[in-house]
Design a protein that fits this description.
The chain has about 260 residues and is an alpha/beta fold. It has 2 domains: about 200 residues, 2-enoyl-CoA Hydratase, Chain A, domain 1 (Alpha-Beta Complex), CATH 3.90.226; about 45 residues, Lyase 2-enoyl-coa Hydratase, Chain  A, domain 2. Helix 1 runs parallel beside helix 4 and helix 6 packs across helix 7. About 35% of the residues are buried.
């Protein structure tokens, strides 16, 4: 079980890699438990300021482990399943997470990518929510996160038809922020993570919290939350360091305090 999710630390970033190439990184409870645990461990480490979540060249994750998860499942067993709690553990990670996608990100794989704070991908990437082809629907946030990312009509186009989209279309609809060459996609994703990790950690985490909250609260409440968080940052050493570095035309050194 320890080998199904790999962790490589490259402080101040870390890479968490799904490692089930024989099944295109299909997701099940064991995999998600390990992903959540590894992310929580990194989240508790102040030396790690950004995390890259990835798979391999062929697949980020090609969906649920259908043979293990669905064949003998009943309505009651699915309602009592532990998976929702595992997804929530991933969603509660405070450290920014960059999803680095190459190859397939389908079904639960697409949903796992959407839990992350931004999605970058290889030019070979393909995304989709094909659950309707199995007589079911997305069950790990696809019907909720996808419309918030791309809008109702595009989300319905993907969810109701089950079609796959390639990298360029994913970027065009706003699901992906950057596309990288197939030869360098992971290194390019890590470069994005290092850029984030170089910023003031408290400010980055508060910004992540606010953007996530914007998906589920009224504008007036969001603006109030933003204003309070903005003011709070004026009590940090990093704010003083950032302003002094700007005034004196030097590179800031942020400490997370």
């Amino acid at each position: 079980m320890a080998d199904i999710v790999l962790v490589v630390r490259e402080e101040p970033i870390a890479v968490v890699q799904l490692n089930r190439p024989e099944v295109l990184n299909a997701l099940n409870a064991e995999v998600l438990e390990m992903v959540a645990t590894r992310l929580e461990e990194l989240d508790a480490d102040d030396r790690i300021r950004c995390i890259v979540l990835t798979g391999n060249e062929k697949a980020f994750a090609a969906g649920a482990d259908i043979k293990k998860q669905f064949i003998d499942a009943s309505a009651i067993s699915m309602l009592e399943d532990s998976l929702p709690g595992l997804w929530q553990r991933v969603a509660r990670i405070k450290t920014p997470i960059v999803a680095a996608v190459s190859g397939f990100a389908l079904g639960g794989g697409c949903e796992l990518a959407m839990i992350c704070d931004l999605i970058v991908c290889s030019e070979t990437a393909q995304f989709g929510q094909p659950e309707v082809n199995l007589g079911i629907i997305p069950g790990a946030g696809g019907t909720q996160r996808l419309p918030r990312a791309v809008g109702k009509y595009v989300a319905n186009d993907l969810i109701l038809t089950g079609r796959f989209i390639k990298a360029e279309e994913a970027r065009a609809i706003g699901l992906v922020s950057r596309i990288f060459p197939a030869a360098t996609w992971l290194e390019d994703a890590k470069a994005v993570a290092r850029t984030i990790a170089a910023k003031a950690p408290i400010a980055v985490r508060l910004a992540k919290e606010l953007v996530n909250a914007a998906q589920s609260q009224p504008l007036e409440s969001g603006l109030l939350h933003e204003r309070k968080s903005f003011a709070l940052l004026f009590a940090t050493d990093d704010k003083r360091e950032g302003v002094d570095a700007f005034v004196n035309k030097r590179k800031p050194t942020f400490t997370g305090r």
